[in-house]
Amino acid sequence: MTASPAPRGACPTLENPMAVADGLLARFRPETGLSPDQLTALADAADTHGNGLIEVTARGNLQVRGLSESSAAPFRDALANAGIAAQPAPAIETSPLAGDDPKAMADPRPLARALRAVCNDALAHGSLSPKLSIVLVTGGQVLLDGLKADIRLIARPDGWALELGTDTLGELDETDIPAAVAVILEALQAEGPRARASDIASLPLAAKIKNLRPLDHSSVRPSSYMVGPLSLSDHAPALRVGLPFGQVRARQVRDLAQIMAEQGVAEARTAPDRSLVLVGFDTSTLRALAPALARVGYWTRPDATGVKLSICSGAEDTDAGVIQAAELAQGFYSAAPELIDGSFHIHVSTCAKGCPHAGRPGIVLDGSQLTLYRAPDAKPLATLDPAAIETGIVSLADRIRDTRQPGETTLSVLGRLGQ
Protein backbone atom coordinates (compact mmCIF):
# COMPACT_ATOMS: atom_id res chain seq x y z
CA MET A 1 0.00 0.00 0.00
CA THR A 2 1.25 3.48 -0.84
CA ALA A 3 0.52 6.77 0.87
CA SER A 4 -1.96 7.73 -1.82
CA PRO A 5 -3.52 4.54 -3.17
CA ALA A 6 -6.03 4.76 -5.99
CA PRO A 7 -9.67 4.08 -5.13
CA ARG A 8 -11.08 0.97 -6.72
CA GLY A 9 -14.76 1.91 -6.57
CA ALA A 10 -16.05 -1.50 -5.50
CA CYS A 11 -17.47 -2.96 -2.33
CA PRO A 12 -17.79 -6.53 -1.09
CA THR A 13 -21.36 -7.83 -0.87
CA LEU A 14 -23.07 -11.02 0.19
CA GLU A 15 -23.47 -12.07 -3.46
CA ASN A 16 -19.98 -10.96 -4.50
CA PRO A 17 -17.47 -11.25 -1.63
CA MET A 18 -14.15 -9.46 -2.04
CA ALA A 19 -10.75 -11.17 -1.82
CA VAL A 20 -8.76 -9.76 1.12
CA ALA A 21 -5.81 -10.92 3.20
CA ASP A 22 -7.65 -13.62 5.13
CA GLY A 23 -9.92 -14.95 2.38
CA LEU A 24 -13.16 -13.63 0.94
CA LEU A 25 -14.98 -10.87 2.81
CA ALA A 26 -18.79 -10.66 2.66
CA ARG A 27 -20.47 -7.41 3.73
CA PHE A 28 -24.18 -6.76 4.04
CA ARG A 29 -26.82 -4.81 5.94
CA PRO A 30 -29.54 -7.03 7.45
CA GLU A 31 -32.99 -5.87 6.39
CA THR A 32 -34.28 -6.39 9.93
CA GLY A 33 -32.96 -6.90 13.41
CA LEU A 34 -31.61 -10.35 14.24
CA SER A 35 -33.29 -12.65 16.76
CA PRO A 36 -31.26 -14.86 19.12
CA ASP A 37 -31.85 -17.85 16.81
CA GLN A 38 -30.68 -15.84 13.79
CA LEU A 39 -27.56 -14.68 15.62
CA THR A 40 -26.76 -18.29 16.46
CA ALA A 41 -27.24 -19.24 12.80
CA LEU A 42 -24.95 -16.39 11.74
CA ALA A 43 -22.26 -17.52 14.19
CA ASP A 44 -22.51 -21.14 13.07
CA ALA A 45 -22.31 -20.12 9.40
CA ALA A 46 -19.26 -17.91 10.06
CA ASP A 47 -17.51 -20.78 11.84
CA THR A 48 -18.45 -23.42 9.28
CA HIS A 49 -17.86 -21.44 6.09
CA GLY A 50 -15.44 -18.67 7.20
CA ASN A 51 -12.76 -18.14 9.82
CA GLY A 52 -15.24 -17.30 12.58
CA LEU A 53 -14.57 -13.56 12.61
CA ILE A 54 -17.65 -11.34 12.47
CA GLU A 55 -17.55 -7.54 12.30
CA VAL A 56 -19.87 -4.57 12.42
CA THR A 57 -18.45 -1.71 10.38
CA ALA A 58 -18.37 2.03 11.03
CA ARG A 59 -21.53 2.35 8.92
CA GLY A 60 -23.33 -0.46 10.72
CA ASN A 61 -22.89 -3.21 8.12
CA LEU A 62 -22.15 -6.82 9.00
CA GLN A 63 -18.95 -8.42 7.71
CA VAL A 64 -17.94 -12.07 7.80
CA ARG A 65 -14.32 -12.93 7.09
CA GLY A 66 -12.41 -15.93 5.80
CA LEU A 67 -14.89 -17.26 3.24
CA SER A 68 -13.62 -19.12 0.17
CA GLU A 69 -14.76 -19.61 -3.39
CA SER A 70 -16.31 -22.92 -2.39
CA SER A 71 -17.86 -21.77 0.90
CA ALA A 72 -19.39 -18.42 -0.11
CA ALA A 73 -22.53 -19.93 -1.63
CA PRO A 74 -23.21 -22.33 1.29
CA PHE A 75 -22.73 -19.37 3.63
CA ARG A 76 -25.41 -17.41 1.77
CA ASP A 77 -27.69 -20.44 1.86
CA ALA A 78 -27.24 -20.77 5.62
CA LEU A 79 -28.26 -17.15 6.12
CA ALA A 80 -31.26 -17.53 3.82
CA ASN A 81 -32.36 -20.63 5.71
CA ALA A 82 -32.22 -18.61 8.92
CA GLY A 83 -34.35 -15.85 7.39
CA ILE A 84 -31.48 -13.34 7.29
CA ALA A 85 -31.82 -11.13 4.21
CA ALA A 86 -29.51 -8.37 3.00
CA GLN A 87 -30.79 -4.88 2.28
CA PRO A 88 -30.52 -4.27 -1.48
CA ALA A 89 -28.30 -1.62 -3.03
CA PRO A 90 -28.05 1.30 -3.05
CA ALA A 91 -27.83 1.71 0.70
CA ILE A 92 -30.61 3.75 2.32
CA GLU A 93 -29.40 4.33 5.86
CA THR A 94 -31.60 5.20 8.82
CA SER A 95 -31.14 5.02 12.58
CA PRO A 96 -31.60 1.56 14.11
CA LEU A 97 -34.14 3.30 16.37
CA ALA A 98 -36.09 4.74 13.43
CA GLY A 99 -39.69 5.29 14.48
CA ASP A 100 -38.96 4.42 18.11
CA ASP A 101 -36.70 7.30 19.18
CA PRO A 102 -38.47 10.03 21.20
CA LYS A 103 -35.54 12.39 20.64
CA ALA A 104 -35.54 12.10 16.84
CA MET A 105 -36.78 14.95 14.65
CA ALA A 106 -38.82 12.63 12.38
CA ASP A 107 -39.65 9.01 11.59
CA PRO A 108 -37.65 8.30 8.39
CA ARG A 109 -39.22 4.93 7.59
CA PRO A 110 -42.01 6.11 5.24
CA LEU A 111 -39.49 8.21 3.31
CA ALA A 112 -37.02 5.32 3.19
CA ARG A 113 -39.70 3.08 1.69
CA ALA A 114 -40.56 5.69 -0.92
CA LEU A 115 -36.88 6.11 -1.81
CA ARG A 116 -36.41 2.36 -2.15
CA ALA A 117 -39.14 2.38 -4.81
CA VAL A 118 -37.35 5.26 -6.57
CA CYS A 119 -34.05 3.36 -6.50
CA ASN A 120 -35.65 0.19 -7.81
CA ASP A 121 -37.16 2.14 -10.68
CA ALA A 122 -33.79 3.75 -11.48
CA LEU A 123 -32.03 0.37 -11.44
CA ALA A 124 -34.56 -0.95 -13.94
CA HIS A 125 -33.17 1.62 -16.40
CA GLY A 126 -29.45 1.42 -15.66
CA SER A 127 -26.70 0.76 -13.13
CA LEU A 128 -25.74 2.82 -10.09
CA SER A 129 -22.43 2.85 -8.24
CA PRO A 130 -22.17 -0.03 -5.74
CA LYS A 131 -20.85 2.50 -3.24
CA LEU A 132 -23.77 4.93 -3.62
CA SER A 133 -25.38 5.81 -0.30
CA ILE A 134 -28.47 7.73 0.79
CA VAL A 135 -28.46 8.77 4.45
CA LEU A 136 -31.53 10.02 6.31
CA VAL A 137 -30.42 12.08 9.30
CA THR A 138 -33.06 12.55 11.99
CA GLY A 139 -31.03 13.23 15.13
CA GLY A 140 -31.91 11.33 18.26
CA GLN A 141 -29.88 8.91 20.31
CA VAL A 142 -28.03 7.15 17.45
CA LEU A 143 -26.52 9.77 15.15
CA LEU A 144 -25.83 9.24 11.46
CA ASP A 145 -24.52 12.76 10.93
CA GLY A 146 -20.92 11.65 10.50
CA LEU A 147 -21.62 9.11 7.75
CA LYS A 148 -20.40 10.05 4.29
CA ALA A 149 -23.32 10.24 1.85
CA ASP A 150 -23.92 10.87 -1.84
CA ILE A 151 -27.45 12.01 -1.04
CA ARG A 152 -28.11 13.25 2.48
CA LEU A 153 -31.54 14.22 3.77
CA ILE A 154 -31.64 16.03 7.11
CA ALA A 155 -34.91 16.35 9.02
CA ARG A 156 -35.88 19.94 9.86
CA PRO A 157 -38.95 21.44 11.54
CA ASP A 158 -40.58 22.34 8.20
CA GLY A 159 -39.17 19.74 5.82
CA TRP A 160 -35.91 18.06 4.87
CA ALA A 161 -32.60 19.61 3.84
CA LEU A 162 -31.21 17.99 0.71
CA GLU A 163 -27.46 17.61 0.27
CA LEU A 164 -25.54 16.29 -2.72
CA GLY A 165 -22.22 15.17 -1.31
CA THR A 166 -21.12 18.12 0.81
CA ASP A 167 -23.23 20.70 -1.06
CA THR A 168 -26.56 21.87 0.33
CA LEU A 169 -29.09 22.10 -2.51
CA GLY A 170 -32.04 23.41 -0.50
CA GLU A 171 -35.09 22.31 1.49
CA LEU A 172 -38.02 20.17 0.39
CA ASP A 173 -41.31 18.90 1.75
CA GLU A 174 -41.23 15.14 2.28
CA THR A 175 -43.71 14.56 -0.55
CA ASP A 176 -41.34 16.23 -3.03
CA ILE A 177 -38.25 14.23 -2.06
CA PRO A 178 -38.80 11.06 -4.14
CA ALA A 179 -39.02 13.08 -7.36
CA ALA A 180 -35.91 15.05 -6.38
CA VAL A 181 -33.92 11.88 -5.70
CA ALA A 182 -35.09 10.46 -9.02
CA VAL A 183 -33.59 13.51 -10.76
CA ILE A 184 -30.29 12.97 -8.93
CA LEU A 185 -30.15 9.26 -9.76
CA GLU A 186 -30.83 10.00 -13.42
CA ALA A 187 -27.96 12.48 -13.44
CA LEU A 188 -25.66 9.93 -11.81
CA GLN A 189 -26.57 7.30 -14.38
CA ALA A 190 -25.84 9.78 -17.16
CA GLU A 191 -22.29 10.08 -15.80
CA GLY A 192 -21.68 6.34 -15.73
CA PRO A 193 -22.18 3.22 -13.59
CA ARG A 194 -19.63 4.25 -10.96
CA ALA A 195 -20.59 7.94 -10.70
CA ARG A 196 -20.75 9.51 -7.24
CA ALA A 197 -22.04 12.81 -5.93
CA SER A 198 -18.66 14.47 -6.50
CA ASP A 199 -19.05 13.83 -10.24
CA ILE A 200 -22.11 16.08 -10.56
CA ALA A 201 -22.28 19.90 -10.56
CA SER A 202 -24.70 20.95 -7.82
CA LEU A 203 -26.14 24.21 -9.17
CA PRO A 204 -27.36 22.92 -12.56
CA LEU A 205 -28.86 19.90 -10.84
CA ALA A 206 -30.64 22.01 -8.22
CA ALA A 207 -32.30 23.98 -11.01
CA LYS A 208 -33.98 20.77 -12.20
CA ILE A 209 -35.54 19.93 -8.82
CA LYS A 210 -39.08 21.16 -8.34
CA ASN A 211 -40.28 22.99 -5.22
CA LEU A 212 -36.74 23.31 -3.83
CA ARG A 213 -36.60 26.12 -1.27
CA PRO A 214 -33.37 28.09 -0.74
CA LEU A 215 -31.30 27.01 2.25
CA ASP A 216 -27.87 28.43 2.99
CA HIS A 217 -26.67 25.42 4.94
CA SER A 218 -27.97 22.38 6.74
CA SER A 219 -27.38 21.72 10.40
CA VAL A 220 -25.84 18.46 11.55
CA ARG A 221 -24.50 17.51 14.95
CA PRO A 222 -20.87 16.64 15.59
CA SER A 223 -20.27 12.92 15.23
CA SER A 224 -20.41 11.13 18.55
CA TYR A 225 -20.52 7.57 19.77
CA MET A 226 -21.61 6.28 23.15
CA VAL A 227 -22.64 2.85 24.33
CA GLY A 228 -25.10 2.28 27.12
CA PRO A 229 -28.85 2.47 27.86
CA LEU A 230 -31.27 4.20 25.46
CA SER A 231 -34.96 5.13 25.84
CA LEU A 232 -37.67 4.28 23.31
CA SER A 233 -40.91 6.09 22.53
CA ASP A 234 -43.03 3.60 24.47
CA HIS A 235 -40.81 4.14 27.54
CA ALA A 236 -39.22 0.74 27.01
CA PRO A 237 -35.41 0.55 27.27
CA ALA A 238 -32.82 -0.32 24.65
CA LEU A 239 -29.13 -1.01 25.06
CA ARG A 240 -26.36 -0.02 22.68
CA VAL A 241 -23.30 -2.24 22.94
CA GLY A 242 -19.97 -1.94 21.19
CA LEU A 243 -18.01 -4.70 19.52
CA PRO A 244 -14.37 -4.32 20.63
CA PHE A 245 -12.87 -2.53 17.63
CA GLY A 246 -15.71 -3.84 15.52
CA GLN A 247 -14.75 -7.51 15.64
CA VAL A 248 -15.86 -10.56 17.63
CA ARG A 249 -15.52 -14.28 17.20
CA ALA A 250 -18.43 -16.55 16.43
CA ARG A 251 -18.44 -17.90 19.98
CA GLN A 252 -19.04 -14.37 21.29
CA VAL A 253 -22.01 -14.00 18.96
CA ARG A 254 -23.35 -17.28 20.29
CA ASP A 255 -22.81 -15.92 23.81
CA LEU A 256 -24.76 -12.80 22.82
CA ALA A 257 -27.60 -14.92 21.44
CA GLN A 258 -27.74 -17.05 24.57
CA ILE A 259 -27.82 -14.01 26.87
CA MET A 260 -30.55 -12.41 24.76
CA ALA A 261 -32.62 -15.58 24.91
CA GLU A 262 -32.15 -15.93 28.66
CA GLN A 263 -33.02 -12.28 29.28
CA GLY A 264 -35.95 -12.20 26.86
CA VAL A 265 -34.37 -9.72 24.41
CA ALA A 266 -36.16 -9.80 21.05
CA GLU A 267 -33.52 -8.63 18.59
CA ALA A 268 -30.15 -6.99 17.90
CA ARG A 269 -29.91 -4.27 15.25
CA THR A 270 -26.65 -3.22 13.63
CA ALA A 271 -25.70 0.41 14.24
CA PRO A 272 -22.99 2.87 13.17
CA ASP A 273 -19.65 2.99 14.94
CA ARG A 274 -19.32 -0.79 15.12
CA SER A 275 -22.14 -1.28 17.55
CA LEU A 276 -25.41 -3.14 18.09
CA VAL A 277 -28.67 -1.90 19.57
CA LEU A 278 -30.63 -4.46 21.56
CA VAL A 279 -34.40 -3.92 21.72
CA GLY A 280 -37.49 -5.79 22.88
CA PHE A 281 -37.07 -6.20 26.63
CA ASP A 282 -38.35 -4.55 29.81
CA THR A 283 -36.66 -2.23 32.26
CA SER A 284 -36.10 -4.95 34.86
CA THR A 285 -33.86 -6.78 32.37
CA LEU A 286 -31.46 -3.89 31.86
CA ARG A 287 -29.69 -4.25 35.21
CA ALA A 288 -28.54 -7.80 34.46
CA LEU A 289 -28.13 -7.49 30.68
CA ALA A 290 -25.21 -5.06 30.50
CA PRO A 291 -22.94 -6.90 32.99
CA ALA A 292 -23.69 -10.24 31.32
CA LEU A 293 -22.63 -8.88 27.93
CA ALA A 294 -19.54 -7.21 29.38
CA ARG A 295 -18.40 -10.55 30.79
CA VAL A 296 -18.30 -12.06 27.28
CA GLY A 297 -16.35 -9.14 25.81
CA TYR A 298 -18.83 -6.50 24.64
CA TRP A 299 -18.52 -2.84 25.57
CA THR A 300 -21.55 -1.70 27.55
CA ARG A 301 -20.28 1.36 29.45
CA PRO A 302 -20.00 4.90 28.01
CA ASP A 303 -16.55 5.28 29.59
CA ALA A 304 -14.96 2.37 27.72
CA THR A 305 -11.45 3.54 26.78
CA GLY A 306 -11.46 1.69 23.47
CA VAL A 307 -14.15 3.88 21.91
CA LYS A 308 -11.53 6.64 21.62
CA LEU A 309 -9.45 4.55 19.22
CA SER A 310 -10.69 4.89 15.65
CA ILE A 311 -9.86 1.98 13.34
CA CYS A 312 -10.53 0.71 9.84
CA SER A 313 -11.48 -2.95 9.61
CA GLY A 314 -8.94 -4.99 7.69
CA ALA A 315 -6.23 -7.62 7.70
CA GLU A 316 -2.71 -7.91 6.35
CA ASP A 317 -1.13 -11.16 5.19
CA THR A 318 2.52 -11.57 6.18
CA ASP A 319 5.04 -14.40 5.87
CA ALA A 320 4.42 -15.23 9.53
CA GLY A 321 0.61 -15.02 9.47
CA VAL A 322 -2.35 -12.66 9.20
CA ILE A 323 -2.66 -9.52 11.34
CA GLN A 324 -6.17 -8.17 11.94
CA ALA A 325 -6.95 -4.49 12.51
CA ALA A 326 -8.93 -5.38 15.62
CA GLU A 327 -6.01 -7.46 16.91
CA LEU A 328 -3.65 -4.51 16.52
CA ALA A 329 -6.11 -2.16 18.23
CA GLN A 330 -6.66 -4.69 21.01
CA GLY A 331 -2.92 -4.71 21.56
CA PHE A 332 -2.96 -0.96 22.23
CA TYR A 333 -6.08 -1.29 24.37
CA SER A 334 -4.54 -4.01 26.54
CA ALA A 335 -0.94 -2.82 26.72
CA ALA A 336 -1.23 0.97 26.73
CA PRO A 337 -4.76 2.23 27.46
CA GLU A 338 -3.45 5.59 28.65
CA LEU A 339 -2.07 6.27 25.14
CA ILE A 340 -5.52 5.94 23.54
CA ASP A 341 -6.42 9.61 23.53
CA GLY A 342 -8.42 9.93 20.31
CA SER A 343 -5.57 11.57 18.41
CA PHE A 344 -4.74 8.73 16.03
CA HIS A 345 -6.39 6.17 13.80
CA ILE A 346 -5.39 2.61 12.86
CA HIS A 347 -5.70 1.33 9.31
CA VAL A 348 -4.95 -2.28 8.46
CA SER A 349 -5.52 -2.58 4.77
CA THR A 350 -7.71 -5.16 3.10
CA CYS A 351 -6.80 -3.81 -0.34
CA ALA A 352 -5.29 -0.74 -2.00
CA LYS A 353 -8.51 1.29 -2.22
CA GLY A 354 -7.30 3.88 0.27
CA CYS A 355 -10.78 5.15 1.05
CA PRO A 356 -10.88 3.89 4.64
CA HIS A 357 -8.07 6.13 5.85
CA ALA A 358 -8.19 8.88 3.22
CA GLY A 359 -6.38 11.84 4.72
CA ARG A 360 -6.80 10.78 8.36
CA PRO A 361 -3.53 10.74 10.29
CA GLY A 362 -2.74 7.54 12.10
CA ILE A 363 -1.01 4.19 12.09
CA VAL A 364 -1.02 2.10 8.92
CA LEU A 365 0.01 -1.53 8.70
CA ASP A 366 1.37 -2.64 5.31
CA GLY A 367 2.38 -6.29 5.53
CA SER A 368 4.17 -6.43 8.88
CA GLN A 369 5.47 -2.86 8.60
CA LEU A 370 3.87 -0.33 10.94
CA THR A 371 4.08 3.25 9.67
CA LEU A 372 2.73 6.65 10.61
CA TYR A 373 0.49 7.93 7.83
CA ARG A 374 0.22 11.70 7.87
CA ALA A 375 -0.51 12.77 4.30
CA PRO A 376 1.51 13.14 2.21
CA ASP A 377 4.16 11.31 4.21
CA ALA A 378 4.49 7.81 5.64
CA LYS A 379 7.12 7.37 8.38
CA PRO A 380 8.31 3.84 9.42
CA LEU A 381 7.64 3.03 13.08
CA ALA A 382 8.13 -0.68 13.68
CA THR A 383 7.97 -4.23 12.34
CA LEU A 384 5.40 -6.52 13.95
CA ASP A 385 5.40 -10.26 14.49
CA PRO A 386 1.86 -11.64 13.97
CA ALA A 387 2.52 -14.19 16.73
CA ALA A 388 3.46 -11.50 19.25
CA ILE A 389 1.36 -8.43 18.53
CA GLU A 390 1.14 -7.30 22.14
CA THR A 391 4.90 -7.60 22.63
CA GLY A 392 5.47 -5.26 19.70
CA ILE A 393 2.86 -2.80 20.95
CA VAL A 394 4.40 -2.80 24.44
CA SER A 395 7.77 -1.91 22.90
CA LEU A 396 6.22 0.91 20.86
CA ALA A 397 4.25 2.14 23.88
CA ASP A 398 7.44 2.30 25.96
CA ARG A 399 9.09 4.45 23.29
CA ILE A 400 6.08 6.78 23.30
CA ARG A 401 6.11 7.09 27.09
CA ASP A 402 9.84 7.76 27.17
CA THR A 403 9.57 10.78 24.84
CA ARG A 404 6.10 12.12 25.66
CA GLN A 405 5.93 15.69 26.98
CA PRO A 406 3.22 16.91 29.40
CA GLY A 407 -0.02 17.57 27.53
CA GLU A 408 1.27 16.08 24.27
CA THR A 409 -0.92 13.79 22.19
CA THR A 410 0.13 10.30 21.21
CA LEU A 411 -0.03 11.31 17.55
CA SER A 412 2.47 14.12 18.15
CA VAL A 413 4.90 11.71 19.80
CA LEU A 414 4.51 9.24 16.95
CA GLY A 415 5.43 12.06 14.58
CA ARG A 416 8.84 12.32 16.22
CA LEU A 417 9.59 8.62 16.43
CA GLY A 418 11.63 6.78 13.81
CA GLN A 419 12.01 3.10 12.97
Write a structural description:
- With 419 residues, the chain is an alpha+beta fold.
- It has helices at 36-49, 72-81, 109-123, 177-191, 202-206, 250-263, 283-295, 325-335, 389-403, 410-416; strands at residues 18-20, 23-28, 53-56, 62-67, 91-93, 133-137, 151-156, 159-164, 167-172, 228-231, 237-242, 247-249, 267-271, 275-279, 310-312, 315-318, 321-324, 345-348, 362-366, 369-374, 377-383.
- A five-stranded antiparallel β-sheet has the order 1-2-4-3-12. It has a five-stranded mixed β-sheet with strand order 5-6-7-8-9.
Defining traits:
419 residues, disordered N terminus, 28% helix, alpha+beta, 10 helices, globular, 21 strands, five-stranded mixed β-sheet, single chain, five-stranded antiparallel β-sheet
Query: Biggest sheet: strands, sense, closure?
Result: 5 strands, antiparallel
Radius of gyration: 22 Å
Q: How many β-strand stretches?
A: 21
Estimated structural class:
alpha+beta
Number of helices: 10
**Residues in helix, %:** 25-40%
Approximate strand percentage: 15-25%
N-to-C terminal Cα separation, in Å?
18 Å
Task: Name the average pLDDT.
Answer: 90
Stretches where pLDDT falls below 50 for ≥5 residues? Answer: 1-8
Strand arrangement, major sheet: 1-2-4-3-12
C-alpha geometry = globular
